[in-house]
Design a protein that fits this description.
Layout: E1 10-15, H1 21-24, H2 30-38, H3 47-50, H4 67-73, E2 80-84, H5 95-114, E3 120-125, H6 131-141, E4 147-153, H7 166-175, E5 178-182, H8 200-206, H9 208-221, H10 223-226, E6 232-234, H11 242-256, H12 267-274, E7 275-278, H13 288-298, E8 304-305, H14 318-322, H15 327-342
Parallel strand pairs: 1-2, 2-3, 3-4, 4-5, 5-6, 6-7, 7-8
Helix pairs in contact: 5-6, 6-7
């Protein structure tokens, strides 16, 4: 965002730099440090390809995802931000190595970002292919209340409603952490039901169907009914597809609910109670009329949380969306939805004055 706003601002989707092997080895045990050196490990397969897409189209200053870059380009416009460093640990078949790398990334993120900048919160990396190890790492990082969610890639071997993941969701709910799904993933599974796309352009453009599948799966699985405090945050997916999905789920639920008797409410109600979406990208024109229609179709500004997807920039921009919102909607989207979802407080200087 480029304009000043009276509301506090929480940026819920900020990519920090991907740590090198040299960066995380100080946070690994002696055994894994020796392993990294012996195999000449540099980076996991797919990290460069997976994010950030279109990096060659970014201006040099936009590519700076260091702490200084985030302070300059994110925290100059926001009172707080949530950072994450996607590392592709789901690509590793060795479960103990994957979890060691995940823990190393989290310790690095804590040391290099959280400890140095009090306005930052973080997404924790876990290796979901090892459920027991993922739960252990989730509980370890939960001791630091600045880790407020766990990060998972959208590409996965199974939809996230699968019961193989339920122990992770149960631990997250118990620890008060959200589950965040972001673009990408290196699991060897294609990004469409029809197989692999031939270019990053095709993949990134069509990836919303992967996000839709996870939302549908988690609603239909009954996990939200089982865990009433669980929150799911969908990042970098867009959200203009959501009204159509909710309408379709509700319609089919009325005729096929015998298959999912644990889904006792219309599926859209579970989405409204448990799922939040970061604002960018906006799959729309910049037309104010079109944006107003999309917000009306969405039905509630409580579903959206501001996320810049730094270092990317988009058109239409966040300013286009804010321009068609009233004051209450802007407050909800810019900060209060995030504060409620993550149960976080802003510095007192950034908090709005009490009413009356």
């Amino acid at each position: 965002m480029t304009e000043a706003h009276s509301s506090p601002v929480i940026d819920c989707d900020v990519h920090c730099e991907v740590p090198s092997a040299e960066s995380i080895t100080p946070f690994l045990s002696e055994h894994w440090v020796d392993h990294v050196r012996r195999v000449r490990f540099r980076q996991l397969i797919g990290v460069d390809y997976t994010y950030p897409p279109w990096s060659e189209m970014m201006l040099p200053q936009q590519r700076n995802q260091s702490l200084d870059g985030i302070r300059d380009r994110v925290l100059s416009n926001a009172d707080a931000a949530i950072v994450h460093a996607y590392y592709g640990v789901e690509s590793q078949q060795h479960p103990y190595y994957a979890q060691a790398l995940a823990a190393g990334v989290n310790r690095w993120l804590e040391s290099e970002y959280l400890d140095k900048e009090p306005r930052l919160f973080a997404s924790a990396t876990i290796a979901p292919q090892d459920t027991q190890g993922a739960v252990a790492e989730l509980r370890r990082v939960a001791a630091n209340k600045r880790f407020i969610q766990v990060l998972l890639p959208a590409r996965a071997p199974e939809p996230y409603g699968s019961q193989r993941y339920w122990p992770i969701w149960e631990a997250a709910a118990e620890e008060g952490m959200a589950i965040a799904i972001t673009y990408g993933g290196s699991t060897g599974t294609p990004q469409t039901p029809n197989g692999w796309m031939s270019s990053l352009f095709e993949e990134y453009t069509s990836f919303q169907q992967v996000f839709e599948a996870h939302v549908m799966s988690m609603v239909a699985s009954g996990i939200f009914a089982k865990l009433p405090d669980l929150k799911l945050v969908v990042m970098e997916s867009g959200w203009t597809w959501l009204p159509g999905l909710m309408w379709r789920m509700d319609t089919e639920w009325h005729t096929a609910r015998r298959e999912v008797p644990w889904v006792e409410l219309p599926p859209s109600e579970y989405v409204k109670r448990h799922v939040r979406f970061t604002t960018l990208p906006i799959d729309s024109s910049s037309s104010p009329k079109h944006l107003e229609e999309l917000l009306e179709q969405l039905g509630s500004s409580e579903l959206l949380m501001y996320g810049s997807d730094f270092p990317r920039t988009y058109e239409p921009s966040m300013e286009n969306l804010l321009a068609v919102m009233d004051a209450e909607q802007r407050d909800r989207v810019l900060w209060s939805n995030a504060a409620e979802t993550y149960k976080i407080s802003l510095p007192s200087s950034a908090s709005p004055a009490p009413a009356g």
